[in-house]
Amino acid sequence: MRLTQRNGVTAYDVASRYDDAYFADLAARYRERNRFARQRLANVSSLLPPLPGRKLLDLGSGMGTFAVEAAKSGAFAVGIDLAPAALTAAQRVAESERALVSLIRADGAQLPIRSRSVDVVLAADLTEHLDDVTLGRVLREARRVLRPAGVLVLYTPNREHIFEKLRERGMLKDGDPSHIGMRSEKELVDAVSAAGLRVTAVRHLPSHVPAWNVLERGLGRWVPLLRRRIGLVAKEAG
How far apart are the C-alpha atoms of 121 and 48, rounded to whole Å? Predict the structure, then answer.
């Protein structure tokens, strides 16, 4: 698999960018349910299996969006993040939403979770922040903690979208500098397969910008440049 991180930068090198302001902005979008938050919730929800009674592990849970949503849907939800600011923000969001969520400060590459104990492992907007080595470790840990019938769900921006192509050519303003691991669908599938998981579904999901949303929904099936988000579902191989 082709290396995708920038100049040898690792996930741990950019960790300091995830501060109180970073998570406060995301929390505000979620509380307001603005267009970005609504589309993100719809996209990720479309990838998840029914959650009532299941244990969901939200890797890189940030300010808690999907751990909170899973708990509100009847799941036993656990949020994992390495950033203290993330857990503080997530606790506030969970309390405001009256959602019972377990929050743990931990590294997704070294999960303090018992093997074969989780029904759903979700990594939403996480893999683009990970270098290849760290991504491999995170995926292997996800496989370890999944129950035999469990599923892994990934949601991430697509490196092949026109926005990212223009950024690579310097024709569009750089995005989030912590996005050191932007990947194509093939690169993501290869990484998941290398971790011993079998990809069962890949979906291309739209952005929140109205005009682009229409184009991506209408033409993304035929035009790779209009595939904004990758949604991937995988199970244990075999």
Answer: 10
Q: Is the dihedral of CA 8, 13, 17, 18 positive or negative?
A: positive
State which amino acid sits at residue 69: E
Distance CA 187, CA 87 (A): 30
Distance of CA 3 to the CA centre of its chain: 19
CA pair distance 238, 101, nearest whole angstrom: 32
Read off the pLDDT of residues 37-71 as tens digits, 9 standing for 90 and up. Answer: 999 999 999 999 999 999 999 999 999 999 999 99
- The 10 Å CB-count burial string (b at 16+, else e) for 71-101 is bbbebbbbbbbbbebbbebbebbbeebebeb
For 155, phi then psi, to 5°, come to -140, 120
The pLDDT score that the predictor gives to residue 7 is 64
Torsion-angle region of residue 8: left (phi > 0), alpha (psi -120 to 50) or beta?
left
CATH T-level assignment (fold) for domain 15-236: Rossmann fold (3.40.50)
pTM above 0.70, yes or no: yes
Residue 164 has pLDDT above 70, yes or no: yes
Is residue 77 within 8 Å of residue 67, measured between CB atoms? yes
DSSP for residue 119: E
Helix (H), strand (E) at residue 95: helix 84-97
Give me the mean pLDDT over the 140-162 stretch: 96
Query: How far is Cα 50 from Cα 170, in angstroms, rounded to an integer?
Result: 42
Spell out the residues 6+ positions from residue 129 whose beta carbon is closer than 8 angstroms to its own.
11, 14, 60, 178, 179, 180, 181
User: Which DSSP symbol is given to 183?
Assistant: B
Q: Which helix (H) or strand (E) holds 43?
A: helix 35-45
